[in-house]
From TrEMBL:
Domain called Ketoreductase: residue spans: 10-203
Domain of life: Bacteria
Name of the protein: NAD(P)-dependent dehydrogenase, short-chain alcohol dehydrogenase family
SUPFAM superfamilies, sorted: NAD(P)-binding Rossmann-fold domains
Organism: Bosea lathyri
Length: 306
């Protein structure tokens, strides 16, 4: 346990914690005094298969370091599984103080080739999964008048990326979910925030490298380890962050960024209203100066990580 145990006495649940970002968050939470529920079904990157080993291995890592942890092997994709995951925390430790909704899968495909199954499965794990786990915990947080939720979003949703309509929709949907939870539950002392992580992990190791630009992007990502994301998550789970809610953060190696949220940037009006022709002749030319480019994440993050 670290000298400054920011999560001392808290029970923290981390989904998808068998590897990558989730593992590092679980390990750091344990090192900062939390009793940790390590949830992972041990599935392949596309969500198929099952291996109980990853969750158990992370539990052993936490215990070997002097911490306390238990494993949960249920899937977040169905409400019943999420309820069982939350029940593991209550059965093992008698309470639940924070959740990191990190579980995810990828099934990349260009939109005109994406199947309904590829669309549905990704949303079920990322968006439905985060709702299911958060909703299962909501009555507990309401009753105890406290709780912190950290949701893993992505610049694929916040900005955009090719061949990820399912993933992008789920990750941007998470931003709306987090904001709604923050609004609805602030009177109960419940906080909800998002992190968009840049980190080389199994989740992004499937990125297609078919150009020098993509090779350069992957090389930059490989410098960013999952361990860089964990400190912000641990902070947001702690009481030191009791005034932080409804925000979107990004971690990019040693950088922590705060993302903007959609707000009006320009307006036009006519006292008599608009005809389609007037919109074409006057409104769009005026508004177009503030149009966003059709860019992707790598177009925005052009500087090298520090």
């Amino acid at each position: 346990m670290t000298e400054n145990a920011m999560l001392d006495g808290k029970v923290i649940l981390v989904t998808g914690a068998g590897g990558g970002i989730g593992r590092d968050i679980a390990l750091m939470a344990g090192a900062h005094g939390a009793r940790v529920v390590v949830n992972d079904i041990g599935a392949a990157l596309d969500g198929r298969g099952e291996d109980k080993g990853p969750a158990e291995r992370v539990v052993e890592e936490i215990r070997s370091a002097g911490g306390t942890a238990v494993a949960s092997l249920d899937s977040v994709a169905e409400p019943e599984g999420a309820q069982r995951i939350v029940s593991v925390a209550l059965d093992a430790f008698g309470r639940l103080d924070g959740i990191v909704n990190n579980a995810g899968i990828l099934r990349d495909a260009f939109f005109h080739k994406m199947s309904l199954e590829e669309w549905d499965r990704v949303l079920k794990v990322h968006l439905y999964g985060s709702f299911n786990v958060s909703r299962a915990a909501a009555p507990i947080f309401k009753e105890q008048q406290s709780g912190s939720l950290v949701h893993m979003t992505s610049t694929s949703g916040l900005i955009g990326n090719l061949a990820q309509a399912n993933y992008s929709a789920a990750k941007l949907g998470l931003v709306g979910l987090s904001k709604s939870i923050a609004l609805d539950m602030r009177r109960f002392g419940v906080r909800s925030n998002c992190i968009a992580p840049f980190a080389w992990s199994r989740m992004i190791s499937s990125i297609k490298v078919d150009s020098p630009e993509q090779q350069e992007r992957v090389a930059r990502l490989q410098q960013m380890t999952p361990a860089k994301v964990a400190p912000l998550a641990v902070y947001l789970l702690s009481d030191r962050a009791d005034s932080v809610t409804g925000q979107i953060f990004c971690v990019r190696n040693n950088e922590i960024l705060l993302f903007s949220q959609p707000r009006p940037v320009r307006s036009v009006q006519r006292e008599q209203g608009w005809t389609p022709e007037q919109i074409a002749d006057h409104a769009m030319p005026a508004l177009s100066a503030s149009f966003h480019e059709l860019d992707v994440s790598s177009d925005v993050f052009t500087w090298d990580p520090v």
